[in-house]
Amino acid sequence: MPLLHALAIFAAGIAAGTINTVVGSGTLITFPVLLAFGYQPVVANVSNTIGLVPGNASGAIGYRRELTGQRDRAIRLAFASISGGVIGAVLLLTLPASAFKAIVPAFIVVALALILLQKRLSAALASHRRDGREHVGPVALAGVFGAGIYGGYFGAAQGIMLLAILGLSLSEDLQRLNAIKIVLVGLVNLVSGVIFVFAAHVAWLPVLLIAVGSVIGGVLGARVGRRLPDPALRLVIVAVGILAIVRLLG
After folding, report:
1. Under a CB-based contact definition with an 8 Å cutoff, are residues 89 and 135 in contact?
2. Partner of 80 at 20 to 30 A CA spacing, among 36, 37, 165, 230?
3. What gap in Å lies between CA 239 and CA 111, rounded to an integer?
4. CA–CA separation, 65 vs 59, rounded Å?
5. Can you give the three-state secondary structure of the chain, one letter per residue?
6. Where are the domains of the chain?
7. Are residues 237 and 46 in contact, defined by beta-carbon separation less than 8 angstroms?
8. Which residues neighbour 97 within 8 Å (Cβ) at sequence distance 6 or greater?
9. pTM for the whole thing?
10. CA–CA dist 97, 131 (Å, integer)
11. Distant-in-sequence, close-in-space partners of 187: CB < 8 Å, separation ≥ 6
12. What is the pLDDT along the chain (250 residues), one digit of tens a residue?
């Protein structure tokens, strides 16, 4: 691999790790870079998924304060994410690579709309929560499960989708929801990555470069993201989501 290609993949890993921690959709940076350097789409997707796992871990560590007190909630949601991730990974290995391309932008548009309307919708749904408290109900579990399937298949904007789902299901600060999102995305990447290691062709040098870069990016993203007020974080989410749509339709 030429040195310039290696440096570009490493830099893309840093950027993706940062964006994944703050919002999500870091895949839309690393995946196109791998395609540009001649890797086949499925190989690029598989290698990218595995490489981003360490960045998810470093981002979760950076958000450990916001994760405090959310253990039971996270465990319930984790089972849904892991189950969906397994199904999504199997779909990637069995379905045509273009299967989701037509509907992925629509998913992102819906997720962005939910993010923007989160406060109003959450207030409307609050009366349906028992004792006025948030709970992880079947709708939340189904939504997280669906996001896990999507994440195991491709993953771009999975974080945005999860933030929208969690925001409608839980009366919680956006930063604390973002902390759970990082954990859930990391679990989906991990379980699908394990499947890919045994069942798909992996480009290991790009994996290593993305992994190291994403760890650095995860640390940077945690430092930046935790300091953003909710309105600013929502603007970042929407901006990244719009970019995701443009890139996928391009």
Report:
1. no
2. 230
3. 12
4. 12
5. CCHHHHHHHHHHHHHHHHHHHHCCCCHHHHHHHHHHCCCCHHHHHHHHHHHHHHHHHHHHHHCHHHHCCCHHHHHHHHHHHHHHHHHHHHHHHHCCCCCCCCCHHHHHHHHHHHHHCHHHHHHHHHCCCHHHCCCCCHHHHHHHHHHHHHHHHCCCCHHHHHHHHHHHHCCCCHHHHHHHHHHHHHHHHHHHHHHHHHHCCCCHHHHHHHHHHHHHHHHHHHHHHCCCCHHHHHHHHHHHHHHHHHHHHC
6. 3-249
7. no
8. 41, 42
9. 0.80
10. 46
11. 78, 81, 82, 85
12. 888 999 999 998 998 888 878 777 778 788 888 888 888 888 888 999 899 999 888 888 888 888 888 888 889 999 999 999 999 999 988 887 676 666 667 766 776 676 676 566 656 555 554 544 456 678 888 989 999 998 888 777 788 788 878 877 777 777 888 889 889 999 999 999 999 999 989 999 999 999 999 999 988 888 877 676 767 766 766 776 677 667 666 6
Q: How many residues does the chain have?
A: 250
What pLDDT sits at residue 131? 45
To the nearest 10 degrees (0 to 180), the angle between helices 230-249 and 27-36 is 30
The first and second tokens of residue 128, run together, are: 């349906």
Q: Which two tokens stand for residue 94?
A: 């069995």
Q: At which residue do the structure tokens 């970042």 appear?
A: 236
- Separation of alpha carbons 238 and 107, rounded Å: 13
Give CA separation, 188 vs 89, 134, 156, 249, in Å: 9, 24, 12, 24
**Residue 142 structure tokens:** 């189904």
Distance CA 34, CA 44 (A): 6
